[in-house]
Amino acid sequence: MELTERKLKILQAIIDDFVFSAEPIGSRTLSKKLDLGISPATIRNEMADLEEMGYLTHPHTSAGRTPSDKAYRLYVDTLMERHPLPVEEQTAIRTRLNENFNELNKTIEKAATLLSEITNLTAFALTPKEDNNQLKYINLLPVDKTSVVLMIVTESGKVSNTVIRLRSGYDQRKLEILSKMLTYNYRGRELSSIQTIDLVKKVEADIAALSAMSGFMENFMPEFLRTLEKMLDTELYMEGLTNIFDIPEYNDLDKARMFLKMMKQKDRFTEVLDNRADGVIITIGEENTDEEMKDCSLITATYRVNGKFIGKLGVIGPTRMKYDEVISLVEFMTDNLSNTFQITGDTDSEE
Question: Residue 16 — pLDDT band, cuts 50, 70, 90?
Answer without folding.
Answer: very high
